[in-house]
Amino acid sequence: MKYGYYPGCTLLSSAKEYDLSLRLSFAQLGIELVELDDWSCCGAVHGEGKGVIALPARNLALAEAQGLDTIIAPCSGCYRNLRRASQSVQKDKAARQMVNESLVEGLELKGNVRVLHPLYVLTHEVGLERIKAQVVRPLTEMKVAAYYGCMLTRPKDEFDSTERPTGLDELLVALGATPVDYPFKAKCCGGALAISHSEVTAKLTGKVLDSAKGAGADTVTLACPMCHTALDLYQGKAARAVGHDLELPVLYFTQLLGLALGIEASRLGFQRHIVSPEPQLARLGF
Amino acid sequence: MTNVLNPFVVELLERPGGDKVLQCYQCATCSGSCPVIDEMQYGPRRILHLIQSGEEALVLSSRDMWFCVSCYSCASRCPREIPITELMATLRELAVEKGYAEDLEADFGQSFMETYKHHGRLFEPELMIRYYLRTFDIKGLLGMLPLALPMLLKDKLPFLPERIENPEEMEALLPEPHTPSAEERARRRRRWLPWLTSGVVTLLLGAGGLAWHVVAHRKEDE
């Protein structure tokens, strides 16, 4: 299995541990990732006008030029943007023409690139049964709240429900962990306002973490670097917003996958978290 | 038959997310689903009603679209399939173009765009410098400082930007700068500081980049 890989800006800086654990655990599963050469920012939620489509579309054109028919985007925001651009140029001739007029000479987008989130590579392409068969260190005794956030499941795609998604929970079961059900799993963390209105981020993140904790979770797992910033870095602010301690380590699903596949904990970037998962992992023998 | 559409609706019909505004029948599923409804003045349902009523100034000077967290809860539930999230983004753009935008999030968006345009990728320290120089949001900055140290200690802030080969490629991917009308300029005039500081920062960073380039090349020549 071979996929083009679009890391996105944060995976080079604040979310290095996501990049690290994704590369290691996918290699362990025999999935080859080819990083897209010269990839550029997708615009996040700050693309303007034609840039909303053209910024991510440049990366689709690069993928085509580099012979990659599918690219995976680990950030939910990048995933949404690349997917929207891909759908838009496939169904709308005018959009495709606009993109091609905006691209540097020599680069042309025909519009046949498939965009996937790495979680869906696991659940829909590799298959959970195959992953389960490769688990050497089941995550028993871990009670994990799967946090989906927004753009992983919305707008609607063919992979999961927008209201009650289950993909991450099913992966957790395959890894031997116990998923915890809680009402805020697909509610927003407010990460988009983390700088300009951080009190809103703290409030929304507080509700999510409080809901997960109340349901008995000892860990949260997620699939987006922006959500991670909110739930991990802003957890202190979130705790002040809800009025009590939260103390919930927040791990990328690829880190849990890596652990279960037998990759050494020291290689999965756990020392990079603000709320340290290390005491808990040590207790569980990792 | 005379055209009964108000000019604001006509303008929105051509924009992303704006082509279905007339389909709204005010069921309020959107406002009921919105996680930031408490922060808004009107909420999405009333915003749609105000748009249908042609209340351009009320809509564009409201704070609502700046608090939209782009979570798609409203849009994915809307029984009329109105892409409200995209509509909110369009309202942000219009508010900037027409000189109504005053929210800090407007400055954040502009700083974000200037940063990725500069390198082809995001560079967080530059984004922060651009944003705080643009806004002088001292209260916000003080709230952020306690987070900066742990970020540095955990190696979550890069020191050097990642760049694409030719960052000039970015320019053509973005819309041409909007030329404001006299009326829009008058509204914008209250906001001279951000425009000035973002210009100065761009110049300084450009000069710094050029100097670095020259030094790096001189080394290569040696």
Please characterize this protein's 3D structure.
The complex is a heterodimer of chains A (286) and B (222). With 286 residues, chain A is α/β, with parallel strands linked by helices. Chain A has 2 domains: 2-118, Up-down Bundle (Glutathione S-transferase Yfyf (Class Pi), Chain A, domain 2); 136-283, Rossmann fold (3-Layer(aba) Sandwich), CATH 3.40.50.11810. Helix content of chain A is 44%, strand content 10%. Chain A has 12 helices and 8 strands. In chain A, the strands form 2 sheets. Chain A has a 4-stranded parallel sheet. A 4-stranded parallel sheet of chain A has the order 6-5-7-8, with helices on both faces. In chain A, α1 runs parallel beside α11 and α8 (198-214) packs across α10. The longest helix of chain A is centred in the C-terminal third of the chain and has 17 residues, at 198-214. The mean pLDDT of chain A is 97. Chain B has 222 residues and is mainly α. Chain B folds into 2 domains: 7-97, no CATH class; 104-221, no CATH class. Chain B has 12 helices and no strands. Chain B has helices at 7-13, 29-33, 43-52, 56-60, 64-67, 73-77, 84-97, 104-119, 124-135, 138-153, 182-188, 192-221. The longest helix of chain B has 30 residues, at 192-221. Chain B starts with 6 loop residues before the first helix and ends with a helix. The chains are: A alpha/beta (286), B mainly alpha (222). Chains A and B meet through α2 and α8 of A and α6, α7, α8, α9 and α10 of B.
